[in-house]
Amino acid sequence: MFKHRLDIFFKELIAGKANPLGRLTDYMIRIEFQARGSPHAHTILWIESAPKVNVNSDEEVTNFINKYQKCAIPEKDGDLRNLVLSLQRHVHSATCRRRGSCRFNFPHPPSAETLIARESEEEDPIIVDREIKVKQEVCSRVRKLMDDKDLPEDISLDDFLTKAEVDPDLYHQMLKLMKSGKQVVLQRQPSERWINQYNPSILQTWWANHDLQFILSPEACIMYVTSYMTKSERAISELLNKVAQENKDSELKSKLRKVGSAFLQNREVSSQEAAFRLLSLPLKRASRKVVFANTAPKDIRVSMLKPHSLLQEMDDDDENIFFTSALDRYASRPDLLENMSGKAVNRSIIIAADKGILAYKNPTLLPKNGGSIHLDRGWAQSLMKRMNLVKR
Fold first, then answer.
1. Residues 6+ positions from 97 with CB-CB distance below 8 Å
2. Would you tell me which of 197, 216, 275, 290 could form a disulfide with 182, CB atoms 3.0–4.6 Å apart?
3. In this predicted structure, what is the pLDDT of residue 26?
4. Sequence ranges of the domains in the chain
């Protein structure tokens, strides 16, 4: 159900004609199971003509953010208002306060406008330290008032700052200051300090909590990819490696049995995740296909053994008992393909050249000799596209 809903959601809304975030050009999706329970999706979206920080002006960036990202509590739209208050309102939990303070930095500070906070432009470290101390003092006053449960929900930003005894101009200046890195500060009223940012079209279609963030730097994107998109189950991986090492001298069947037993007995799996895995439903998806290339040294690289029927037909002294990998085929590429980027070439030339090279260097790779390399027009076209060759 979740997979089908997610597929339709991406196809019809995110990548559809509605363009709730702009025209989608690329995406990555990784499905994860929260606390071994219900699934949720981590995604990275590439939007056509999206502005870039330090390339476009801050005004262009904040206008783009304001167009697709909100944290306001709607006053007129009753349905959207109910969704925002029920799904996008943060409530502290043991998970978010694992280290004492909220790891999502709620409540968020109110701001009269959306802005990009940065490190100080001052070169004198003494002045920078002084600015940071002023910000800490201002933030301390604001934070204390934001945590006040008796704070009126309809209080204006000006009244809020007056009550916190903070000068509005100084507060705005301090919002723009970061000790390190960059951060988006969204326009929000004091009453919206607990609201997680959302997209109205997505929220009204998906009907579930979502967290939408504009990527400010390549480093932030890399951090998200390594922390969420490619996150491994470290604890279970370490356990399985330990079991495998303890049984490295055992027979293969015995080793697999013990590793499988350790996996089943030490990992809690929810019914949703069990259904995903039993049905072989993919846990990741992307707009671009990726081929894994094992770049380990050749002597320890895993290779696939040829079937027994082919091995029986080979000479006793023939050591070519493994199928060729992508790296093997790349290393055996024809010399004529070198330095041909952008030049006109014919698919028949590519196929003929490769067949000639294989027939000379290793004829057993050709299908007529029991090999697995099939050189057809589709393969030649794919190769030409990857190498930027022009079809003649």
1. 103
2. 216
3. 92
4. 107-193, 234-284, 298-391
